[in-house]
Specification:
Blueprint (H helix, E strand, L loop, with lengths): L13 H17 L5 E2 L12 H10 L6 E3 L1 H4 L2 H11 L12 E4 L24 E5 L2 E11 L7 E6 L5 H10 L6 E6 L2 E5 L4 E5 L2
Parallel strand pairs: 2-3, 3-4, 4-7
Antiparallel strand pairs: 1-8, 5-6, 5-9, 7-8
Length: 202
């Protein structure tokens, strides 16, 4: 197990990198389906991807409860790194998490296990950070909704069971529901609850 002294560093330039990452996340949310690159730290604990680490360093703090899936909790250095650099509390109940870090999408059986917000406070919901195999190769998915001019096509290898069914049910909950940020290395794609997805061939 990694000691504190051996733990990978965070951003080399904390302020500038956090600002850049925040802009990239906001651009991704504003333009669902668009692939954004983020300023990622060079060293992160396995199995955390560089993009996940950058988002954590930017958005996590002592007031944001974080839930880790089994793939992440099986590697204790990931949780230790988040606690050390972000001071974020780790929670065992996914239903109270502000953020959830998903290391293995195949294990993500239900989006309804996370905080969905309420009609009065739809923002009190979980943002899922999902590590995926690729955001440039894989099944073709058509996205539409706010922030998209007509439709846009995403080719990705995501791995979430019944992805379209789960996201369709999530979309139907609007204004409640979760938001997803997909991460592949230092690239991200956002799928907010407002986005509709359809599978396309080819």
């Amino acid at each position: 197990m990694t000691t504190v002294a051996e733990m990978p560093a965070g951003f080399a330039n904390k302020v500038l990198s956090a600002q850049s990452t925040f802009r990239s996340v906001m651009d991704a949310m504003a333009r669902p389906g668009s692939v954004q690159r983020i300023a990622a730290p060079s060293g992160v604990p396995s199995p955390m991807m560089r993009g996940t680490a950058a988002i954590a360093l930017t958005l996590f703090d002592q007031d944001t409860p974080v839930w880790l899936d089994a793939a992440m909790t099986a590697a204790p250095d990931a949780g230790k790194w988040i606690r050390f650099h972000c001071s974020a509390p780790m929670v065992a109940d996914s239903g109270i998490a502000d953020f959830a870090v998903i290391g293995d999408p195949l294990l993500l059986q239900g989006l309804d296990r996370f905080a969905l917000g309420s009609g009065e406070y739809p923002d009190r919901s979980t943002t899922l950070i999902v590590q995926v195999e690729s955001l440039t190769h894989g099944a073709a998915i058509e996205l539409s909704g706010p922030g998209i001019d007509g439709t846009t096509l995403l080719r990705a290898t995501i791995g979430i069971p019944d992805l379209l069914g789960q996201l369709s049910a999530n979309h139907a909950l609007f204004p409640r529901g979760v938001d997803l940020i997909l991460v592949a290395d230092d690239a991200i794609v956002a799928i907010p609850r407002t986005t509709r997805l359809i599978a396309r061939e080819g």
